[in-house]
Design brief:
The chain is mainly beta and 337 residues long. 4% of the residues lie in helices and 53% in strands. It has one helix spanning 2-14; strands spanning 25-28, 34-36, 40-46, 55-60, 63-65, 68-70, 77-87, 90-101, 107-118, 125-131, 134-139, 146-151, 156-162, 169-175, 178-183, 188-193, 199-204, 214-216, 221-224, 229-233, 240-245, 256-262, 265-270, 275-280, 285-291, 307-313, 318-323, 328-335.
Length: 337
């Protein structure tokens, strides 16, 4: 009898939580680790050895969730599921990775050209934005990068400063009388006084590493780094507080470049694409896109490069778009279905 009791005791210890390998895993109701945001996430633990589990705590990107979670209010993209499994006073952690896609196909918007204005053909445009009826532009390339305030109607430069030759200028945005300008791979951004162009501060990037596009919603800054990530920054500390990923119904959208905030949405250029995608910042979904490839037929400069540069004029409710080395800035009105 004692031998039998000892044998049972050894078996219980062997399959108790926290031992060598209980072969726990997270079961997720996905197909090839992919799920739509119209669906409900359902989680459970596979327990092939029949271990007695006391409790389970599920987390999605380190936030505690229930085992049944509707995804309609969840941001899109890659997610890490973590299950803390508790039994017999010990715990184990198992993980699974999933991708949440958008359930809707992006709409296609059209546009009509309202006007066009001359644009400096030497400008490798990286950022474009209106502030108090003045158009600000940031340009790139080493030795050619600068920050300018433009009178676009009369094709004159109001004010301009050159960046040091070691910097490759990128996107810009203007908030509370301060201009925020990115550089590409220098891990640095600049803050200027909007009136004098005096350099006020230099800030470093965080996890984003590279600088591509920049915009603001009146409170926060939004920054791209050439991936599918859009980073949200505090305008005071310039810390990257969080980020969301941009996805369609098919997958991630990378090479997000110049940004513009328009009526609660983010309009974004994609590098090497003559189009704009319209992003919902609440979840990272691409709501719509606009194909501007036909604009190139109206340009004369033989060395024109890709489209890049979006500025929303809130007075006229029109969009101003241009590109790298383009000889025109186009004023367009967006036509929604």
């Amino acid at each position: 009898m004692n031998k039998l009791l000892n044998y049972i005791f050894l078996v219980v210890i062997f399959v108790s939580c926290g031992d060598i390998d209980n072969k726990f895993s997270v079961y997720v109701n996905t197909k090839n680790d992919v799920i739509s945001n119209k669906d409900t996430l359902r989680l459970s633990i596979t327990n092939p050895r029949g271990v007695k589990i006391d409790s389970i705590k599920f987390k999605l990107n380190n936030k505690i969730i229930s085992s049944v979670l509707p995804l309609k209010n969840i941001t899109l993209g890659e997610k890490l599921i973590k299950a803390n499994i508790y039994c017999n006073g010990k715990s184990e952690v198992v993980t699974a990775k999933i991708v949440v896609l958008n359930s809707k196909v992006p709409e296609q918007y059209k546009y009509e050209i309202i006007n066009s204005y001359p644009h400096n053909i030497e400008s490798y445009t990286q950022g474009l934005e209106f502030y108090k009826n003045i158009l600000y532009e940031s340009t790139g390339q080493y030795g050619q990068s600068r920050l300018s305030a433009l009178d676009y109607e009369n094709n004159t430069v109001i004010k301009s400063i050159d960046l040091n030759q070691s910097y490759f200028g990128e996107g810009l945005t203007v908030l509370n009388d301060k201009i925020y300008q990115l550089t590409w791979q220098n891990d640095k951004g600049f803050i200027y006084d909007v009136n004098s162009f005096e350099l006020l501060e230099i800030f470093a990037y965080g996890q984003s590493q590279e600088g591509w596009g920049l915009c603001n919603d009146g409170n926060k800054l939004y920054k791209t780094d050439g991936t599918e990530n859009v980073w949200i920054l505090s305008p005071e500390s310039l810390q990257e507080e969080s980020f969301f990923q941009v996805y369609t119904q098919n997958g991630r959208l990378e090479k997000l470049n110049e940004l513009e905030w328009v009526d609660g949405k983010i309009y974004a250029n994609r590098y090497q694409k003559d189009a704009i995608v319209i992003i919902d910042p609440k979840n990272g979904a691409v709501d719509a896109f606009i194909d501007f490839s036909e604009l190139k037929n109206q340009l004369q400069n033989p060395k024109i490069d890709v489209m890049n540069g979006i500025a929303y004029n809130s007075t006229s409710e029109t969009l101003f778009v241009t590109g790298k080395y383009w000889d025109k800035i186009f004023e367009v009105r967006i036509i929604k279905p």
